Amino acid sequence: MNTAAGLLSVRNICKSHFDPNIGGQAEALQAVSITVDHHEFVSVIGPSGCGKSTLLRIVAGLDQPNSGEISVAGQRVSRPGADRGMVFQEYALFPWKTTQANVEFGLLLKGIKKEERAEIARRFIELVGLKGSEQKYPHHLSGGMRQRAAVARAMANNPKILLMDEPFAAVDAMTRQRLQEELTAISASERTTVLFVTHAIEEAVFLSDRVVVLSGRPGRVIADMKIELDRPRRWDELAGERRFNDYREQLTRLLYGANAPVEMSS
Amino acid sequence: MTASAPSSRLPLTAWWLAWLIKEIMPFAVGVLIWQVLSVLDIWPSVLFPSPFQVFRAFVTDLESGVLLSSLGVSLISLCWGFFVGAAIALPLGYLMGLHSVSRDFFDPLVNLLQAIPGLAWIPFAILWFGLGKGAVIFIIVMSVFFPILHNLLTGIRLIQPVLIEASQTLGAGRAAIIRHIIFPATLPNLMTGIRLGIAFGFRSLVGGEMIASTDGIGYQIFNAQQYFQSARIVVGMLSIGIVWLLLDRLLLRPIEQRTTMRWGLLREGIDNT
Ligand SMILES: Nc1ncnc2c1ncn2[C@@H]1O[C@H](COP(=O)(O)OP(=O)(O)OP(=O)(O)O)[C@@H](O)[C@H]1O
Ligand SMILES: [Mg+2]
Questions:
Q1: What does each C-alpha distance from B171 to A55, A106, A122, A262, B108 come to in angstroms?
Q2: Interface check B214 vs A, CB under 8 A
Q3: Which of residues 69-108 of A touch B (CB under 8 A)?
Q4: Measured between beta carbons, which residues in chain B are less than 8 angstroms from residue A140?
Q5: Which end of chain B is more exposed for a tag (fewer CB within 10 A), N or C?
Q6: Ligand 1 atom 17: the closest Cα is on which residue?
Q7: Where are the domains of chain A?
């Protein structure tokens, strides 16, 4: 259908897993198609277990779909690659590398020279507000700092698209809002293309140009909503914004509807 | 902070004192109890030599050169045994850990063989290599090999898949994953394996030299027993312990402090946070 459009094109992805409870395959994703344009920030929301992480892992090339295909800039992809950077919910920083070395890692693999690596890494470390923690190992960073380091590591590698799986789920509410504001500012200034997974409606509205809603398991796309608010955004400005609350309400209703008729008959 | 220059000497001295107490105290207490037990004269000295007798035997063996030369022989055997054992265990371990066909093939064999103590190889070691260093080294290889292999395999199994996945999304291929993820991630378990390997190696070394050799510290212990020179037995036993301590303090621990402890993958103990 929309074959030519977009930087990332997810077409008709179906995926099932073996489920020991029913002794057979259980569908996780049902013909999911999503397009993400250049410089666009798209969030995927859906009830828990609807296949959001599965979808992101398939896009990253870490899982294989049963059918359907993924293309980035018109090229089909099926293996992991540096063109799709990923920020994992559990940070996944390398414990044996300092913040600096973690952020430099992708650049090292690309064969970029030491000084240039250090320079790029410094820039992104500063961008995420980790200046001064370059020589610390991950176990000496707080949860929020680890998350920033993981974002810096993914962004310093200059991927075509950044995939983020509930990256702020494990930090406290205040840190989360700070990180969201920083992410929206950075992605706007760096013009990063982002596919962001969350189950927090406010987070999706706050961050995104578009929000894609998945149904309860098996995940199907049930809505694709444009968020027409200027970016970058700030929480203190959005708190009283009518349209923000409208979007939030609409999505809440959609999600509530998506969650109600659970299709698990077993 | 400005007046720190004159006062900085005191903490340094105090630090040295604390270090000395921490390092020496356990041994001092041990020797003290030993001395008290000897003074009480419960057992004849041939069964329970006193610290002083042991010290005198130590000086004699040191002066005659017997102690150092037999220690030298033993350590050379240990090194050979360790390096040969590790040189086989490391590649095999990474092969088994990263290649399922090799794992399926070697796993049952390794499992069968690892239950056999190194010392059980003494008869064949003597038949194959004759009495002497060859037999001793072979026994050490058989003792060093399994702890290293086993711990390395455990280390590979414990690697978090998400770290490998993260490296893949940063562009890592198979070679880069092995070099940048698998190697450092297996280091804590590998160090455990190396420690255990050396410890097992020491045991087999002494046992092997007693039976399968005519030289080395194990043979000296055995020999001293033949002549009821109990103090010399203790000298031999203690020198093994001291060599191990030096090895641990000067080599193994610094490596761990520079790697796994710094990375937060290993701690001294759970009271130490
Ligand atoms: N490796 C796997 N093997 C078997 N089943 C799996 C596997 N991974 C995911 N599933 C199943 O697929 C479904 C979707 O899982 P997924 O982790 O993608 O959900 P999610 O939308 O990310 O949920 P959450 O919001 O809780 O993170 C779940 O029912 C899960 O049990
Ligand atoms: Mg998930």
A1: 20, 6, 20, 39, 36
A2: no
A3: 80-82, 84-86, 88, 90, 92-96, 105-106
A4: 264
A5: N
A6: A53
A7: 92-158
- Residue B20's pLDDT is 84
At residue B62, what is the residue type? L
- Distance, in Å, from the CA atom of B91 to the CA atom of B89, rounded to the nearest integer, reads 6
The β-bridge relationship of strands A67-72 and A8-19 is antiparallel
Structurally, chain B folds into a number of domains equal to 1
Task: Tell if the CB–CB gap between B171 and A81 is shorter than 8 Å.
Answer: yes
Q: Is residue B210 part of a domain?
A: yes
For strand A8-19 and strand A24-36, is the pairing parallel, antiparallel, or unpaired?
antiparallel
- Give yes or no for a contact between A32 and A10, defined as CB atoms under 8 angstroms apart: yes
Q: Among candidates B36, B35, B54, which has minimal Cα distance to B46?
A: B54
Predicted local confidence at residue A258, as pLDDT:
63
Q: What residues of A are in contact with residue B165 (Cβ under 8 Å)?
A: 60, 62, 80, 86, 88, 92
Q: Is the pLDDT of residue A2 over 70?
A: no
Residue B77's domain is classified under what CATH number? 1.10.3720.10
- Is B170 in CB contact (< 8 Å) with chain A? yes
Whether residue B22 lies inside any domain: the answer is: no
* Cβ atoms B40, B224 nearer than 8 A: no
**What separation in angstroms does the CA of A54 have from each of A27, A30, A117, A213?**
11, 12, 32, 15
pTM equals 0.85
Nearest ligand (C-alpha, residue A88) = 2
Domain of residue B191 covers 56-272
Q: Is residue B179 part of a domain?
A: yes
pLDDT tens for each residue of A55-112:
999 999 999 999 999 999 999 999 999 999 999 988 899 999 999 999 999 999 999 9
The 10s digit of each residue's pLDDT in A159-194 is 999 999 999 888 888 888 988 998 999 899 889 999
For ligand 1, mutation pick of A14, A19, A25, A52 (most atoms within 8 Å of CB): A52
Single out the residue of B220, B203, B197 nearest to residue B120, CA to CA.
Answer: B203
Question: What is the number of the ligand 1 atom nearest to the C-alpha of A46?
Answer: 21
In contact, B89 and B149? CB cutoff 8 Å: yes
Cβ separation of A95 and B187 shorter than 8 Å? no
**For residue B1, what pLDDT is reported?**
38
Backbone angles phi, psi at B48, to 5 degrees: -145, 80
Which numbered ligand comes closest to the C-alpha of A50?
1
- Nearest residue on chain B to A59, judged by CA atoms? B169
Classify A151 in phi/psi space as left (phi over 0), alpha (psi -120 to 50) or beta.
alpha
Q: Are A195 and A56 in contact (CB under 8 A)?
A: yes
3-state class (DSSP) for residue B195: helix
